[in-house]
Amino acid sequence: MAIGSFLVAIVVGLTGMGGGALMTPMLVTFFGVPPLAAVSSDLVAAAIMKPVGSFVHLRRGTVNLKLVGWLCAGSIPAAFGGVLIARALGHGDGVQDIIQKGLGVALLIAATGLGVRGILALRDRAEGRTAATGRRTAEPGAPAATELPDVAVRPLPTAMVGAVGGLVVGMTSVGSGSLIIVALLALYPTLRANQLVGTDLVQAVPLVLSAALGHVMFGDFQLPITAALLVGSIPGVYIGSRISSRAPGGLIRRALAFVLLASALKMFGVGTAPTVWALLGILIAAPAFWTVLRVRYGLPAFGWLRHGEDGRPALQRIK
């Protein structure tokens, strides 16, 4: 469990998402932990792990605190309510199956959101390459802005996003990163990627704390599982955060979406053979689809083999 949580936490440090979406399925699939116990133990571990990345983004100024406030207004009570709903359903096989299916739905939504996020990043990169025409002032490969753009906060929709995300987090432990950041992309498309991640990480701290408290009181929290997760996740998220500026973010995002989809199929009880064929089909179709998008946006057809999401070659990023 410690080794698995270490690997998952590296992904969290690199992408800002994927903690619950990967950790909980890992516990259920590979270690045979009951879904409710996996959700409870994972949330408590995440409540200790999340502040690490949040502190980094707060220091860099890539957090919109107004958005954080309105998200928390909806997510904190909803997360606690999600725990109570899961508890009220009981611990029978039928309840575990409901939680597992809900987790599968959340994973599918998260994987879809990552794909949407990648398309939006590709569009932004294409616009950056046409800076000479005056459509944008950013050059391709330029570092992300450290100042938050001036956005008009929409309180009610933002609080509703927090409430829906909090309810899902309370029941499944998925959504504090993968789901809410997708909703933020839809509501506030002018926020840059690092600002979206920073804002989401900070709002996730009180959200996860609320859900974790509910699971300690009413869920199926198991200290040995949480301790094993913390042994691996704390150093893992630190290492992931350290190397995130050098790793090709686009490649990490694609790999994460692939793993999320595989985990979702497993949660739905899909057999091994159909799962393998479905994943092979996606491996074949996804690069072709991505190449078509690049051509449509006026980018080199096969640039996705060489470049990260900021447009720079991978070797240049490492140097």
Automatic annotation (TrEMBL):
Cellular location(s): Cell membrane; Membrane
Protein name as annotated: Probable membrane transporter protein
Keywords attached to this entry: Cell membrane, Membrane, Transmembrane, Transmembrane helix
Membrane association type: Multi-pass membrane protein
InterPro entries: TM_pro_TauE-like, TSUP/Inactive_protease-like
Pfam families linked to this entry: TauE
Family, similarity comment: Belongs to the 4-toluene sulfonate uptake permease (TSUP) (TC 2.A.102) family.
Cellular-component GO terms for this entry: plasma membrane
Spans traversing the lipid bilayer: 28-48, 68-90, 102-120, 164-188, 221-239, 251-269, 275-293
